[in-house]
Amino acid sequence: MLTIKAETRQEKGTNVSRRLRINNKFPGILYGINKNSILLTLDHNAIFNLQKKSEFYNESILLLINDKEHKVKVHAIQRHSFKLKLLHIDFIYIYD
Fold first, then answer.
1. Percent of all residues in the chain with a pLDDT value above 70, rounded to a whole number
2. What's the pLDDT tens digit per position in 7-37?
3. Is the pLDDT of residue 96 over 70?
4. How many CA atoms lie within 13 A of 77 on its CB side?
5. ∠86-24-42 over CA atoms, to 5°?
């Protein structure tokens, strides 16, 4: 099982996302049924290297948010149209 470290963020919007991307990070979100959405900040290089593996899309992922574990799956990824950059990622909870 792949493990990804993330941090929560309070702010949202275009300017905040732009500042994150300048600092080699990018925004994401974790959501699910009957759960509150969590806004995330992720390290671009770490995720970019992991997303090349087939397990990233096909298997569950352990998402560590401020040292709390969440079992998730990738729901959607937004990529830049011509640069090799990730712009945003959506995770969904996995219910056992």
1. 99
2. 999 988 999 999 999 999 999 999 998 889 9
3. no
4. 17
5. 65
Q: Which helix or strand (DSSP H or E) is residue 58 part of?
A: helix 55-58
| Number of compact structural domains in the chain | 1
CATH number of the domain residue 24 falls in: 2.40.240.10
Element (H, E) at 48: helix 44-50
| Per-residue pLDDT at 79 | 95
Domain hosting 44: range is: 2-93
CA 72 to chain centre: 10
Tokens for 81, please give them: 């149209």
